[in-house]
Amino acid sequence: MAQRKLRWGILGCANIAKRAVIPGIQQSATGEVTAIASRNESTARATADELGIPTAYESYEQLLADDNIDAVYVPLPNHLHKEWTIKAAEAGKHVLCEKPIALNASEAEEMAEACARADVKLAEAFMYRHHPRYAMIKDIIKSGEIGEIRGIRGAFTFNSARSGENVRFHRTMGGGALYDVGVYPISAARFVLEREPEAATVHAFFSPEHDNVDMMAAGVLEFSGGVALTFDCAMWAAGRNVLEVLGTEGRIELPSAFVSKLNEEDHLSVTVGRERREVIVPYVNQYALQADDFGRSILQGTPLLFEPSDAVLNMRAVDACLKSARERVRVVL
Question: Of which family is this protein a member (predicted)?
Fold first, then answer.
């Protein structure tokens, strides 16, 4: 007998949902997308037809009232994450919420508590962490091949400054580069080092043309033992998507650290002394892997790889970075 699949509903027709997450769920071993909702009925119907989704709803409330849906994915603008995660939990739905999970750590804690009360799962949609390259990085570090870790460098930048109306350009909606892409290197450093930052110092370009959100930010997150993450992120700069882990004896480099090219091999390189080796990883759909981790936790009772507490801790680091950038001060966590 075929195992039952997790039945997903999608709250909204955001590009990330249509381009990546919905296809990922559809390619996963554990899930199927059964419904999608929009505040515009024609948008929901068109998206459902395009992606082969059986049911389209003209409101989020209608989707949450559907007893045939087990879990929802929330790709709404950042300022709506808390509201609709809590409403979904109260409707008995498990929730995969797009990053950043909330506008601050306090909101993230409220969301985690609401899901715990409702006895539903909550996860933050950081798909990159499910790619096997990151487990490989940890194995290389633990092997001692690159020596002791001295620092991490990360960058995630792109240029959408002329894209017109965009939720990322509104302060009240949780806009800005730190929320949109800075969260990736921050999360990656915490994941690789397996500890939390102690202080943050960030400098940012706040653009009057874009409601004074941070269109570029660069900073340092201090960790124990003299180790630091140096990072930059931008929505108004040439594209980069890289991570480097620097050790006393060598380094690990990921040229496509967070967003991989569709259907292409991924790789990382390890350099020790004058010797450099490429580690080729066959293409995998990291969105499908993310969906399967979530699906197994519900269908089989396996622990999530990343519990809601991790999302709260990541938001504490982001809060410190935003405070540092806005106030031009070093912030101790």
Answer: Belongs to the Gfo/Idh/MocA family.
